[in-house]
Specification:
- By secondary structure, this protein is of the alpha/beta class.
- The protein is built from 21 helices and 26 strands.
- The strands form four sheets. It has an eight-stranded mixed beta sheet, with helices on both faces. Strands 15-14-16-17-13-22-23-26 form an eight-stranded mixed beta sheet, with helices on both faces. The chain has a six-stranded mixed beta sheet with strand order 19-18-20-21-24-25, with helices on both faces.
- Helix 13 packs parallel to helix 15 (390-399).
- The two termini are 49 Å apart.
């Protein structure tokens, strides 16, 4: 969230939206007080007096929460208390009038000054207050007027033909668009109503729309939000499909000095138990979770902190796989920010947003104690990292002891290969737009594929191991089929709420919920059957032995033998 947190504006599809618990709760959250003081401003005759009990249903929600509420009619009140004093008093200001009033300028001035209230208003009022302000001018957007079918209306075409307006935001009846200084987000009061971005297609001149997500807990930059429809789906995936066989594995001798240091450390720690080794002695240190959200679960979160060797590690978030979406940054780093970690982000998804190599080196190699990579489109991320040299910097950071972590794509990228859904139709920046555009049949028309990754762990990673994809195929079954066709590389399956942890030569499975775990996918030498064996949670095992036991080799010990040995010890 921006350092300056005002103005705070909640633009409503209708005042009825304020009676929706999710929206009213968020308004209260914005005030930073459990019982905010609420000022209801109206020009309607039925609200005539400045009283402590409102005559409008809009305020009932706040009265039930024992908030102090004042109603003030700008036209008919017999007690004309000074509006400036009221605005200074209020934590929340609810506006209800259907035409511009002569006090309009006073409200606008207060909104953009030091008065720290949250303004709640329908679209027409918010539009009048925001037009030609820095909030709408710099990002070139306007609100859609009430009761307008924007896709076919003359006003929509007029708005979008203006060079000063490239996007229009529409708000459904029981939804809200929240603005906090230079950031914004959408909230649905009933899960169906949404906010929408409307824009003109440069090729067809047609006005089309994109629904905005309503599941975010924090806002994102408005400049990013109004460009939410980009990039297009098909061209992006077609390019990726052509590059699916790219080799991303980094050779051991690319950084010879550090590689030698790594082998020396590895040999010196091989015979010691994981619990006896200082985290500063070992690398790589990897926490590969089944999904990004698993890193917020206590046992997995604690393991990342533990391996960093610091109470409050510096965390670098690399969001390339999620196309550097701020909402993914917010959700993936939330718990680390809440405990006080210094969290920064490195954006390289777009070709025109690359930082210089010196800046990347400082963040990746010198500054970060933990590097977290986002979930999303792994193939897109690996291609960008290879283009800008970020893959080599990540390896260098790993070899100096930096913790590497992530979920889904952010887990698989550390392995030599990855079972991925990178060619899934909605695995693009604007997943929401694709879901709205395609029918169920098109959304299910895709297949998993195996791609190369960075090679820090010599195995194929299968994240979301306990999940069935939108194509109707279970990850575990498809991975077993891949191993049947090519048993040369062992596979590690990671359930969504679990993490596969590698520390030097040792590995273990960590469960985030007490149920999920990791699995070794292996091929029986005698029968040729491929099966999956769960790994005991929190049992440290020798990584090389586990991976070798999972390969199609002459090794007489099975996967189960290796697991049972460690359970007995």
């Amino acid at each position: 969230m921006s350092h300056i947190e005002f103005p705070k504006i909640v633009t409503l599809g209708s005042l009825q939206a304020l009676s929706q618990p999710k929206i009213s709760k968020f308004v209260i959250h914005l005030t930073n007080t459990p019982t905010p003081r609420v000022l209801y401003l109206s020009t309607h005759k039925q609200c005539c007096e400045l009283i402590d009990t409102p005559e409008c249903k809009t305020c009932i929600t706040y009265l039930q929460k024992k908030c102090e509420v004042k109603c003030h009619n700008l036209v008919y009140s017999s007690v004309q208390e000074d509006l400036e004093s009221l605005l200074t008093w209020a934590d929340v200001v609810i506006c209800n009038w259907n035409q511009e009033h002569n006090k309009h300028w006073q409200l606008r001035y207060a909104l953009f000054s030091d008065n720290q209230f949250v303004l709640c208003a329908e679209v027409q009022i918010a539009k009048a207050l925001l037009d030609n302000t820095s909030i709408s001018r710099l990002t070139k957007w306007r609100y859609c007027p009430d009761d307008t079918d924007i896709a076919s209306s003359d006003e929509a075409h007029l708005l979008l033909s203006d060079d000063k307006c490239k996007r229009v935001i529409g708000v459904d009846k029981l939804a809200a668009h929240v603005i906090i200084n230079e950031e914004s987000m959408a909230i649905s009061g009933n899960k169906q109503d949404k906010c929408h971005i409307f824009f003109r297609d440069e090729t067809t001149e047609e006005i089309i729309s994109t629904p905005l997500p309503t599941t975010w807990d924090e806002p994102i930059p408005t400049e990013e939000l109004v460009e939410f429809h980009e990039p297009a789906t098909n061209p992006h995936l077609e390019i990726l499909e052509e590059l699916v066989n790219t080799n991303f594995v980094i050779a051991d001798d690319v950084i010879p000095e550090i590689s030698h240091h790594r082998r020396t450390n590895s040999e010196s720690t091989h015979s010691r138990a994981l619990s006896e080794i200082s985290v500063d002695d070992i690398f790589p240190k990897i926490v590969a979770a089944g999904k990004p959200g698993a890193l917020q679960l206590g046992p997995i979160f604690d393991k990342v902190i533990e391996l960093s060797g610091k109470e409050l590690p510096n965390l670098l978030f690399i969001g390339t796989a999620s196309f550097d979406r701020t909402d993914r940054f917010n959700s993936n780093t939330k718990r680390f920010r809440e405990i006080g970690c210094d969290v920064r982000r490195l954006d390289v998804s777009a070709e025109d947003s690359n930082p210089c190599i010196e800046e990347m080196r400082f963040l990746v190699v010198d500054w970060a104690n933990v590097i977290m990579c986002a979930g999303g489109n792994t193939l897109h991320a690996l291609l960008r990292w290879k283009d800008v040299g970020l893959d080599l910097l990540i390896k260098e950071a790993s070899m100096k002891g930096t913790v590497l972590c992530g979920g889904s794509a952010g887990a698989g990228c550390w392995f030599s290969s990855l079972h991925t859904d990178s060619l899934r139709p909605d695995n693009t920046k604007n997943k929401e737009q694709v879901l709205a555009d395609l029918d169920d049949e098109d959304l299910a028309d895709w297949a998993y594929t195996k791609i190369s990754a960075l090679g820090f762990i010599d195995a194929m990673c299968v994240p979301h191991f306990d999940v069935t994809g939108t194509n109707g195929v279970a990850r575990s079954e498809d991975a077993e089929q891949m191993l049947q066709e090519d048993p040369s590389t062992p596979a590690i399956g990671v359930d969504e709420n679990a993490a596969f942890v590698v520390v030097g030569d040792e590995a273990l499975s960590v469960s985030g919920d007490g149920i999920a775990t990791c699995h070794i996918v292996h091929r029986d030498e005698e029968t040729g059957e491929v099966t999956s064996t769960p790994i005991s949670v929190q049992e440290s095992m020798n990584l090389e032995e586990v991976l070798e036991s999972g390969q199609n080799s002459e090794d007489e010990r099975s996967v189960m033998d290796v697991i049972h040995e460690h359970e007995e010890n």
